[in-house]
């Protein structure tokens, strides 16, 4: 079973993880998600989690001490842990990374805010033999913090775990799973009834019953869409 621990100063922000597909996956015991408040690990009256940057500059940096205590608390066993630190400076998240995370047993998400987390936190855990540290970004833009990025990654990862999706065949032909010789493709366009809607017909090939030709058409369409995205 995949155990996910998420550390944030806004635990409420992560409430949507209890809903829908992920809520059901937890009820079924396929995944376990625990959300932790970083401020629990502060000892000053203001429960402060940040401080001014060494070397000067704008903004605040998250202090290493509460992060160390919070991560230690959720990694007390001698198991292996994958620590995912959310930062716009990280490696770009993609379907391949989601597949890798879905094959793990223990994921810890560190949701940074402000100008990020003191760099020694990643350095320290990367030096421990039972940890792998991944600094991950969900795209080339800056969010207010890592919470939304964590939700994106948890959702994309959890749906790859056997049993989480009602129909496992859904995974077979979706975007970024289809490949041709040039790499991963986005999905072909989909249609359902009615066959004519507001004067627009469903492509006739899809009504032909010729599965070989339908398959060829879908691959062509997936290639066309993928190509169009790179031309924009
Ligand atoms: N924190 C702020 N921006 C982010 C991004 N793009 N990805 C991950 N974490 C972030």
Descriptive account of the structure:
The strands form four sheets. The protein has a five-stranded parallel beta sheet with strand order 2-1-6-5-7, with helices on both faces. Strands 3-4 form a two-stranded antiparallel ribbon. It has helices at 20-27, 64-73, 95-102, 120-126, 147-158, 211-231, and strands at residues 2-8, 31-37, 50-51, 61-62, 81-92, 106-111, 131-137, 179-180, 183-184, 196-197, 200-201. It folds into two domains: 2-159, Alpha/beta knot (3-Layer(aba) Sandwich); 173-230, tRNA(m1g37)methyltransferase, domain 2 (Trp Operon Repressor, Chain A, Orthogonal Bundle), CATH 1.10.1270.20. The chain is an alpha/beta fold and 232 residues long. The relative contact order is 0.15. The model has no long low-confidence stretch (mean pLDDT 95). The chain has six helices and eleven strands. Adenine binds at residues 86-88, 137-139, 141-143, 145-146, 149.
Topology:
Blueprint: E1 2-8, H1 20-27, E2 31-37, E3 50-51, E4 61-62, H2 64-73, E5 81-92, H3 95-102, E6 106-111, H4 120-126, E7 131-137, H5 147-158, E8 179-180, E9 183-184, E10 196-197, E11 200-201, H6 211-231
Parallel strand pairs: 1-2, 1-6, 5-6, 5-7
Antiparallel strand pairs: 3-4, 8-9, 10-11
Helix pairs in contact: 3-5
The protein binds adenine.
Radius of gyration: 22 Å
Q: What fold name goes in the CATH topology slot of the largest domain?
A: Alpha/beta knot
Q: How helical, in percent, are the residues?
A: 25-40%
CATH class of the largest domain: Alpha Beta
Q: What is the strand arrangement across the widest sheet?
A: 2-1-6-5-7
Average of per-residue pLDDT values:
95
CATH superfamily of the largest domain: SPOUT methyltransferase, trefoil knot domain
> Ends: how far apart?
41 Å
Give the uncertain stretches in residue-range form: none
Family: Belongs to the RNA methyltransferase TrmD family.
Catalytic activity: guanosine(37) in tRNA + S-adenosyl-L-methionine = N(1)-methylguanosine(37) in tRNA + S-adenosyl-L-homocysteine + H(+)
Main location: cytoplasm
Function: Specifically methylates guanosine-37 in various tRNAs.
